[in-house]
Amino acid sequence: MKKRKLLLLCAVLAGPAFAQGFVTAAEVKPILQATKANWVALREYDGNDLLYFTHLESWRCGLSEVRFSVNSTAAAAMPWDMEPCYEDEAQPNAMKLDGRLPYTVLPLGMAATVSVVVIYDDGSEDRMDYERKSILLP
Question: How far, CA to CA in Å, does 50 sit from each of 107, 111, 131, 132?
Fold first, then answer.
């Protein structure tokens, strides 16, 4: 058990670089459950709210789907289109960002709350609801 806790601590501290070998729900679930507060971030930039999914993109291998909603906790209905997991490559979680960015653009001040549902490749789910102030970057 101590080895697993140490591994989890190393994964959290190392972030995306450590994520490279983690490609199943069994491997990424403990990390994402421990880092729920960091699943998304919000930034006010150039007259817009930018809702970032960078953390989830870094741990996307092992996930089958991510859904989110803004200002509605009833259902996280909008799918977040993640980059694929490159399992046949040395770094399956590498973010290539070909023609896409790890955020969505919203009108400035629109996101009062954000709800996120993560569906793992084993069919299990986790959910997190955020208030604007808890995910707003300085």
Answer: 9, 9, 15, 12
Contacts of 67 (CB under 8 A, 6+ apart): 76, 77, 78, 79, 80, 116, 117, 119
Is pTM beyond 0.85? Reply is no
Q: What is the pLDDT of residue 9?
A: 46
Write out pLDDT tens, residues 42-85. Answer: 999 999 999 999 999 999 999 999 999 999 877 778 999 999 99
Distance separating alpha carbons of residues 44 and 22, to the nearest angstrom: 32
Range of the domain at 119: 2-135
Q: Quote the number of domains for the chain.
A: 1
The answer to whether the beta carbons of residues 106 and 49 sit under 8 Å apart is yes
User: Do 76 and 83 meet the contact criterion of CB atoms below 8 Å apart?
Assistant: no
